[in-house]
């Protein structure tokens, strides 16, 4: 039986992702617009205080784990192997492409897109790749207009 509490899970995730509490606070605040102090996070990881649910959701998202995992509703063994992988940093400032093929390859390798799958860039012609990239760009334009 697992007797972890949310703070224990947060502490494990910080450590497993190679962060200090200070680094976690800085990155988390920057990503989600919070102004938490290191002292606040210390209270969380020492189970003296529990974050509000909206913040718990963002902590789970930050570490790419389920809310159930953070809330200790699932077992470490079953959850950690699936969800406790450091999230790949895909912020705009760290991504650049030198060719359309490179950009499309990146998009198609994203888990959500790859699940629709079957794309084999190695066997697609440059024209097919360019056409697909243009179709994706058109879809993104439609989506962005719809959600503005």
List keywords for this structure.
mainly alpha; 434 Repressor (Amino-terminal Domain); 148 residues
Task: Give the helices and strands, then pairings.
Layout: H1 6-16, H2 21-32, H3 38-45, H4 53-63, H5 67-70, H6 76-83, H7 100-109, H8 111-116, H9 126-146
Description:
With 148 residues, this protein is an all-alpha fold. The protein folds into two domains: 78 residues, 434 Repressor (Amino-terminal Domain); 55 residues. 61% of the residues lie in helices and 0% in strands. It is built from nine helices and no strands. Helix 7 crosses helix 9. The protein is elongated, with a radius of gyration of 19 Å. About 12% of the residues have low confidence.
Summarize the structure.
The chain has 148 residues and is an all-alpha fold. The protein has helices at residues 6-16, 21-32, 38-45, 53-63, 67-70, 76-83, 100-109, 111-116, 126-146. The chain has two domains: 6-83, 434 Repressor (Amino-terminal Domain), CATH 1.10.260.40; 92-146.
């Amino acid at each position: 039986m697992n007797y972890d509490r949310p703070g224990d899970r947060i502490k494990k995730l910080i450590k497993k992702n190679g962060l200090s509490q200070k680094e976690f606070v800085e990155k988390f605040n920057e990503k989600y617009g919070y102004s938490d102090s290191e002292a606040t996070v210390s209270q969380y990881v020492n189970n003296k205080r529990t974050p509000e649910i909206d913040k718990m959701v963002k902590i789970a998202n930050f570490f790419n784990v389920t809310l159930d995992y953070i809330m200790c509703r699932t077992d470490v063994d079953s959850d950690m192997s699936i969800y406790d992988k450091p999230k790949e940093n895909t912020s705009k400032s760290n991504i650049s492409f030198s060719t359309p093929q490179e950009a499309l390859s990146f998009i198609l390798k994203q888990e959500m897109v790859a699940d629709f799958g079957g794309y084999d860039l190695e066997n697609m012609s440059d024209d097919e790749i360019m056409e697909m990239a243009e179709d994706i760009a058109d879809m993104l334009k439609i989506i962005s207009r719809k959600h503005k």
